[in-house]
Amino acid sequence: MPESPEVEALGGFLREHALGKQISSVELEEFRALKTRARPLGELEGHAVTGVRRFGKHLAIDTDGPTLLVSFGRAGWARWRDDTSVAEEPAPDAPPMLARIAFDGGAELAVTDAGDWLSLGLHVVDDPSEVSSVAKLGPDPASDGFKREDLDGIVMGRRKQLKALLQEQETLAGIGNAYSDEILYAARLSPVAHASTLDEEERARLFAAIRDVLRGAFEDRRKVPPTELKAAKVAAMAVHGRAGEPCLEGDDVVRDVPGSKGAAQYCAVCQTGGVPLPE
Question: What range(s) does the Formamidopyrimidine-DNA glycosylase catalytic domain occupy (predicted)?
Fold first, then answer.
C-alpha cells in the first residue's frame, strides 16, 4: 500500500513533470474506479494542471477547472510516460490500467491497481474535502504543525492497540501497514500494547519515532521515480516484510504479529521484552 512518503514522492514528480500541461483526453477503462458518477473524467479535458497536493494517502491533481482526487487504497499506483518516450506495451505482469490521462505533447499518466479487489478510487471534485475520506482525515504527523501534545491527546485514554491506532486515518493521516511496523520498532513498543497504557517516556519515544521514520522516508523517496518507489520502500524496511530474518539491532529474528496472516512484523527482543507475542 502506498503511504504518505510514497504519495508525496509521486506528487513531487508530478509537480515537476505535469505542472502547466493541458489535458487533451481521458480514458476510463474500469468504470468502478470512478466514484463521482455525476462528474465524469471528461470534465478534466481542456484544462491545465495548476498544482498537486497530498492529503494523507490521497493525491489531488488540481487544474484550472476541476480537481482529480486519486485515492490509492490498498494497491493503487500510477505510471507516467513523458512526451519524449517511445510508447511501449506494459510488461505482462504490470498491474491493470484503470484510467489514462493524456496531455498535449504526448505525456501520459495512467492509474493502476494491483490488488485482488479494486481499491483505487477517482473523484472529480471542486474541493477535495467533498470526499468523505479526505474530510475525515486526522492530523498529518509528517507536518511541522504536528506537536507532541497532539500525539498525547490522541493516545491518552484510547484503549486501542498501537498498531491499529497508527493506521486509523481519522486519527493520524498517511500511516499504513508498513510504516506503523517501522515506527513501533523504532519506538521499541509492542504493536499490541494499548495506547492508554503508555507512560510519559513511552509517548515521547513514539512521537520521536513517528517524526524520524516519516521524515527519513520522505527525504529518501523524494527524488525516486514512481516506477522505483515500491522497491525503494521495501528495501528500506527494518522489520516490515522481513519475518524470519535477523533483527538489525537485537539478538533475535523478526517475527510475524500473531493474527496478521504475515502482514505485520515485530522483534520480540526489541519490542516485547524478549517474550514473543502469544499465538
Answer: 2-118
Strands (E), the chain: 23-28, 49-55, 58-63, 67-71, 76-81, 97-103, 108-113, 121-125, 254-256, 265-267
Please give the pLDDT value at position 94. 75
Pairing of strands 67-71, 121-125: antiparallel
pLDDT tens for 199-210 read 999 999 999 999
Give the per-residue pLDDT at 85. 62
**463521482: which residue's cell?**
36
Walk me through the domains of the chain, giving residue ranges and CATH numbers.
4-135 (3.20.190.10), 148-271 (1.10.8.50)
Only one residue has cell 527494518, namely 238
64 close to 21: Cβ distance less than 8 angstroms: no
Q: pLDDT of 24-33, one tens digit each?
A: 999 999 999 9
Alpha carbon distance 64, 59 (integer Å): 16
- For residues 112 and 98, the answer to whether their CB atoms sit within 8 Å is yes
The answer to whether residues 257 and 192 touch, using CB atoms and an 8 Å cutoff, is: yes
Name residues of the chain where pLDDT drops below 50. Answer: none
